[in-house]
Amino acid sequence: MVLKDFLGTPKVRQLLSKYAAEGHGHKNMSADEFFERVGMDPVARLGASMGRKIGGAVGIRNVTKNELHSRAPLHESSVACLCALLANRIAIGEIQSADQSEETLISGQVPSSWKQFGGTINVLVSAEERASPSVAGCRVKMEIIFPGQFFAWGAGKKLSRSICNHYARAISEITRYRPS
Predict the structure, then answer these.
(1) Average pLDDT score over residue span 47-76
(2) DSSP, residue by residue, 104-141
(3) pLDDT digits (tens, 9 = 90+) for 148-165
(4) CA of 157: how far to CAs of 6, 16, 62, 65, 66, in Å?
(5) Who has the most CB within 10 Å: 49, 129, 156, 166?
(6) pLDDT tens digit string along 47-59?
(7) CA-to-CA distance for 72 and 79, rounded, in angstroms?
(8) First CA to last CA distance, the chain
(9) What are the residues whose beta carbons fall under 8 Å from the beta carbon of 164, sequence distance 6 or more?
């Protein structure tokens, strides 16, 4: 079964909707909302935005990386990643998975908060080679990038932990049923 077919099953679609609704249930203050509340004028906002763009152009960025392993098959791990990203309000940008591929790449946009101006996340889910073919498994690597910022004030680590927690919960829900 290819990922596209797996995503089309009713139970998987229902699970994705559940996690997406969970993510929209609690919203953090965006950078723009923060600037409005503290009374920052539009010129200062423009300066902050330009500073971020210039910093990004010269290679300044804050990067958080994390890796986890799962015994779940590739498609189930990919769906669990999508659930975890949706629960954390990540706007999914692109999902790359070839029909016979042993990996899936998911890219998304991290929303801004009062700590950071937003960023990108890349999640690579790849099938692991095991000694026994009966024991399937996947490696999930994530990279959270906040361009133009030296510090994200722990936002990357907090997001990474939250994604891992939601991933574990989603995997346990997915493995209760295995769509045919």
Answers:
(1) 85
(2) EEEEEEEPP-SS---EEEEEEEEEPP-SSTTS--EEEE
(3) 888 888 999 999 999 999
(4) 30, 24, 11, 8, 9
(5) 156
(6) 667 777 787 788 8
(7) 11
(8) 9
(9) 66, 68, 84
Q: Where are the alpha helices (DSSP H) in the chain?
A: 3-7, 10-25, 31-37, 42-57, 74-87, 155-174
Neighbouring CB atoms inside 10 A of 35's CB total: 16
For residues 28 and 94, what is the distance between their CA atoms, to the nearest angstrom? 24
The whole-angstrom separation of Cα 74 and Cα 63 is 25
Strand arrangement of the beta sheet that strand 103-110 belongs to: 61-70, 138-147, 119-127, 103-110, 91-96
Q: Which long-range contacts does 54-58 make (Cβ < 8 Å, 24+ apart)?
A: 54/148, 55/147, 55/148, 55/149, 55/150, 56/147, 56/148
pLDDT of residue 170: 95
And the tokens for 14? 């229902």
Token couple for 161: 């932990």
For 177, the token pair is: 């049923």
